[in-house]
Amino acid sequence: MNLRSVDLNLLVVLDALLDEAHVSRAAERLGLSQPATSSALDRCRHLFSDPLLERGKGMMRLTPKAESLRVPIKNLLVGITVVLDPPVVGLATVRQTVRIIMSDHPAVTIVGPLHKKLTESAPGIDLVVQPWHSAAEALDGLAKGAIDLAISVFPKVDVSFQRRNLLDVHYAVVMRKDHPAAMSFTLDRWLEFPHVLVSGRGETRGALDEALAKYNRERRVGIVVPSFLLVPPLVAESDLIAMIPRLCLPANAEESFAVFEPPIPVESFMLHLAWHVRRDQDRAVQHVGTLITQMFEKF
C-alpha cells in the first residue's frame, strides 16, 4: 500500500463508523452529511478490500476485518494526535470526561473524595463510573476505548496495557455480634452456618472454597448476592456468615459486627489500576489515576 495515497481524515471517519456501526449516527457525531459519510465508507471498503459494515437484521454489523481494525485504528489516531497536537493546557482548564470501571467497593469509598479533589485541581474533568462485571470485560473496554481506567484484579496484562498496584487486600469474616459462632469461633463452628457469597456473575464458589478444598472441607453457600453492599444488612439480621475483603467492611465494623480472621489461611489479592497505553499521555486520565493511587495509599 502506498501510504502517500492514504487520507488520514478517512481513518477518522472509519473510527466513528466502527464505533457506531451506523452511517447516520457516525455522520452526526462527525458533523458530516450522510452522503459524505457513505462516500467515505465506500473509500474505506476499497482501501481495506473488505465490506467493513454489512446489513443484518434491522441493523448494520461489523465484519471480522472491521472488528480487527477497531483497536489499531484508535491507537493510530491517538498517536497521530500526540505528535501533531500535543496537549499544552493546564489541568485547571481541561474539559474532559473520564470513564472508570470499578465494583461497588471501592467505589462507595473513593468516588466522593475523588470528586472533591477534582473540583479543587481539575474542575472541568467529569467522571462516569461504570459497574464492574469481570476483569476480562474491563480490559476489553480499555482496548476498545469505551473506558479510560479500570480498578480490578489483573493477574497479567499484555503490552497494550499499563497496570499499577493499588492495595494488597486481605479477607475478614463478619457476622452479627450475638451470632452463635461468635462465642467460640473455630473452623468447625464457621462451617456449621450458611455463608453469603458475593458474585456479580452468580458463581457459587469463591476463593474460600478453593482454600477449604485443601483441608477436604466444604461450606454451604446459603445466598449469592451481586454486591458487597448487601452483605452487612444480611448478616446483621440472620445467622449468615460472610468472608469479604477487609476493604469492603462497613465503617466501624467492630462496633456493630463480630469480625474475625479466617480460621484457615486464605490468600490475599492485589487490586490494580489499569489503562491502555494510548492513554499514557492523556493528562486528564493520568491525573485521575494519580488521585486514585494516592487515596489507596491511605488504606
Automatic annotation (TrEMBL):
<keyword id="KW-0536">Nodulation</keyword>
<dbReference type="InterPro" id="IPR000847">
    <property type="entry name" value="LysR_HTH_N"/>
</dbReference>
<dbReference type="InterPro" id="IPR036390">
    <property type="entry name" value="WH_DNA-bd_sf"/>
</dbReference>
<dbReference type="GO" id="GO:0003700">
    <property type="term" value="F:DNA-binding transcription factor activity"/>
</dbReference>
<keyword id="KW-0238">DNA-binding</keyword>
<keyword id="KW-0805">Transcription regulation</keyword>
<protein>
    <submittedName>
        <fullName>DNA-binding transcriptional LysR family regulator</fullName>
    </submittedName>
</protein>
<dbReference type="Pfam" id="PF00126">
    <property type="entry name" value="HTH_1"/>
</dbReference>
<dbReference type="InterPro" id="IPR036388">
    <property type="entry name" value="WH-like_DNA-bd_sf"/>
</dbReference>
<dbReference type="GO" id="GO:0003677">
    <property type="term" value="F:DNA binding"/>
</dbReference>
<feature type="domain" description="HTH lysR-type">
    <location>
        <begin position="6"/>
        <end position="63"/>
    </location>
</feature>
<comment type="similarity">
    <text>Belongs to the LysR transcriptional regulatory family.</text>
</comment>
<dbReference type="InterPro" id="IPR037402">
    <property type="entry name" value="YidZ_PBP2"/>
</dbReference>
<dbReference type="InterPro" id="IPR050389">
    <property type="entry name" value="LysR-type_TF"/>
</dbReference>
<keyword id="KW-0804">Transcription</keyword>
<dbReference type="Pfam" id="PF03466">
    <property type="entry name" value="LysR_substrate"/>
</dbReference>
<dbReference type="InterPro" id="IPR005119">
    <property type="entry name" value="LysR_subst-bd"/>
</dbReference>
